[in-house]
């Protein structure tokens, strides 16, 4: 059965074999495997993707032998955001899953992710994405790998306010329009990224751009997020797990709106906002505390504003048709085209998210958003702020 071969491939190509980074780029093999499976790819197709993809990766032995033994929670505190001892952090979370949480991955997420959520942006949300794709496939090792990577590359949002979300009156595109003109926030990023502190702390360029925004510009990011008008059902005193899921789906839709309206078509890091939001959507049901879930959503929205600034705020002015309802045949055509030949793993993931959101929607009100986003991913090459790939891929 399909689940058996999926589990086999996921288990075979973990970070037990390949390091989570190669050079200044990130290992996406788990995400690609899961995304292709969601799109209906055959075992042979997925195996072919893996065989080609792993040629770029670095063996774990190159790094694991350099690390010291980490055995308890107290030891891990000093490693938060240190970019050291990834495999010892991974061992810690795997041990916690089995011995602290008795093999219950939901309990692991509930107990550990809220402690790390403020730093989830770590290297373009890749720890969060690793968690979400692993969890969606029932692959507990992937969840542990994601937790370890967030811990390893942790970049926290720093805000002085503890006010809850809500009260805004602007849609997200209008808010980001204001961000685009914020020279103060831009200066914080540009000054910070060349400072000795951030050059030493963040070898990956993306992190050097967003890090100062999160630490020195956190209150500014927070003020922008509080301007966003949340859905009508949002009423903090009466929120429950159903509302949290609805809010998380709304966040995915917001990231897609930004992605498809940006004049820089198929922007690489805005795409990560989409797959990161989908990953958060998958993880939040495991968190029973509504306030912790709201905090994670709040941080994610601040991260999204920071990502937008980090890619130099492309204008969000492209018109998109909103009155089309795609047929099953149209989706089949999109997926068939997606699976023809070899594509960048990010394209598989973006289209998989759109297809999943379309299939899981209670109504087809936003069907146009999902199909149009998928078409953008198919039609345009990945775009970068510098017109070429940058650190953090």
- What's the tally of helices? 20
Q: Which structural class fits the helix and strand makeup?
A: mainly alpha
Low-pLDDT runs: none
Amino- and carboxy-terminal Cα gap: 33 Å
Q: Tell me about the biggest sheet?
A: 2 strands, antiparallel
Mean pLDDT: 93
Strand content: under 5%
In N-to-C order, the SSE pattern is HEEHHHHHHHHHHHHHHHHHHH
Sheet with most strands: strand arrangement: 1-2
Assign an overall shape: globular
Map the helices and strands.
Blueprint: H1 2-12, E1 21-22, E2 25-26, H2 29-38, H3 43-53, H4 61-64, H5 73-77, H6 86-100, H7 105-116, H8 122-136, H9 140-153, H10 172-180, H11 183-193, H12 196-201, H13 205-215, H14 218-226, H15 241-261, H16 268-283, H17 290-310, H18 328-339, H19 345-360, H20 367-379
Antiparallel strand pairs: 1-2
Molecular structure report:
The protein has 393 residues and is mainly α. It contains 20 helices and two strands. It has helices spanning 2-12, 29-38, 43-53, 61-64, 73-77, 86-100, 105-116, 122-136, 140-153, 172-180, 183-193, 196-201, 205-215, 218-226, 241-261, 268-283, 290-310, 328-339, 345-360, 367-379, and strands at residues 21-22, 25-26. A two-stranded antiparallel sheet has the order 1-2. A hairpin with a 2-residue loop joins strand 1 and strand 2 (25-26). Helix 6 packs across helix 9 (140-153), helix 7 (105-116) runs parallel beside helix 9 and helix 19 (345-360) runs antiparallel to helix 20. The chain is globular. The two termini are 33 Å apart.
